[in-house]
Write a structure and sequence with these properties.
Low-confidence stretches: none
Shape: elongated
Helix content: 25-40%
Number of strands: 12
Oligomer: single chain
Strand content: 25-35%
């Protein structure tokens, strides 16, 4: 079901601005159609669309919906040459709590602030389209800074030089971070940094994967395992 962000939820709400345009012109919504809405605090409701103008939609509440309980997964990815747009879009649809862009020793791309605002917009659009919870897009930091910040979390990093420990065999915890390197993988220094804080090196298989493929494959495997425990 489509999910629209609103400032607050009440018995009847006015949807304006970009959200209204999206409903009217992109989705071509009709009278009587039902949508989900979510406020900044995560409160959700099922609403019926009852009136339209050229720039405004009126929705009537049907019932309050239970809050989405997304698993607390943080996806940390070194920024690849191709950028993070599609990774953020797909990861949001699958379901994550937060997205951490990283600069590693072998990173080439160093994004501007405008690029980071674009990522937030992409995450919002993907959450709206899929009905997922919108993840937090964190500021870009180095891998070393990231490791120094992480506490009380299980950290799993995908390592192309790992040949024994499979991601599918790892016991998952409630607070999980998955780390993906950029083209060329992690340096030996970075691997030691992660291992020194207890991060677990895993393999995704024998093939060498692109950054976006590795990120979505790892996240999909984790979500599947969590939902089938």
């Amino acid at each position: 079901m489509r999910q629209i962000k609103v400032k607050s939820i009440s018995q009847q709400i006015e949807i304006t601005g970009n959200e209204a345009k999206h409903l009217i012109y992109s989705l071509r919504s009709k009278f009587g159609e039902k949508i989900a809405v979510i406020d900044p605090f995560g409160k959700r409701a099922l609403m019926e669309l009852v009136n339209f103008t050229k720039d405004k939609v009126i929705a009537q509440m049907i019932k309050i919906l239970p809050s989405r309980q997304e698993e607390t997964i943080t996806l940390a990815v070194a920024i690849p040459k191709r950028g993070l747009d599609e990774i953020i879009r797909q990861a949001t649809e699958i379901g994550i709590l937060a997205f951490q862009p990283l600069i590693t020793n072998r990173s080439i791309v160093k994004p501007s602030e405008s690029k980071q605002e674009r990522w937030k917009r992409i995450a919002g659009e993907a959450a709206q389209q899929s009905g997922a919870t919108e993840p937090i897009i964190k500021p870009v930091i180095t891998l070393e800074e990231f490791i120094n910040q992480v506490t009380n979390q299980t950290i799993i990093f995908c390592n192309e030089n790992e040949h024994q420990r499979k991601l599918s065999n790892i016991e998952l915890t409630d607070d999980l971070t998955i780390v993906i390197g950029c083209e060329g993988g992690f340096s030996e220094h970075e691997i030691k940094l992660m291992e020194n804080v207890g991060a677990i090196s895993v393999t995704l298989g024998e093939n060498i994967l692109r950054v976006d493929t590795a990120a979505i494959l790892a996240l999909s495997m984790i979500k599947f395992k969590q939902e089938n425990l």
